[in-house]
Write a structure and sequence with these properties.
GPCR_Rhodpsn; receptor; about 140 residues; 3 helices; OPN5 protein; 2 strands; transducer
Length: about 140
């Protein structure tokens, strides 16, 4: 069972969501920047704005992690009661919308961007390899 009070549960869940979202969002930004550098070198100067990109990553993650603190969704004990996370069993329309927004903008969209970025990189490498072979 969860050994601490609700405030520690909320803090634990908030940190878990924040750092998890930062991790996936950082990987998404990294794959997108790599894609720009490899596939579109003229537009690949994103490393110049690395600090701005990192601030955007943290702001994006912070926005979704603080939403349950502002009553859009909620944090609570997991079903087994040993840790705390987002309350997945939506009890209201707002909680359902938060879970849906979290799924779309913090899981589906980043995964699709990563998939598209690395697919474009592989395609560019393949086309470049063919061009080198012909010369």
């Amino acid at each position: 069972r969860w050994l601490f009070n609700q405030a520690v549960c909320t803090l634990y869940a908030f940190c878990s969501v924040l750092f998890g979202l930062c991790s996936l969002t950082s990987l998404t930004v990294l794959s997108t920047v790599c894609c720009l550098k490899v596939c579109y070198p003229a537009y690949g100067r994103c490393w110049d704005a690395l600090s701005v990109l990192l601030l955007c990553v943290w702001a994006y993650a912070l926005m979704f992690a603080t939403a349950p603190l502002a009553e859009w969704g909620s944090y609570g004990p997991e079903p087994y009661g040993t840790a705390c996370c987002i309350t997945w069993k939506a009890s209201s329309r707002e909680a359902t919308l938060y879970i849906l927004a979290l799924f779309i903008f913090c899981y589906l969209l980043p995964c699709l961007l990563i998939l598209v970025s690395y697919s474009l990189i592989l395609w560019t490498v393949r086309v470049s390899r063919r061009a080198v072979r012909q010369h």
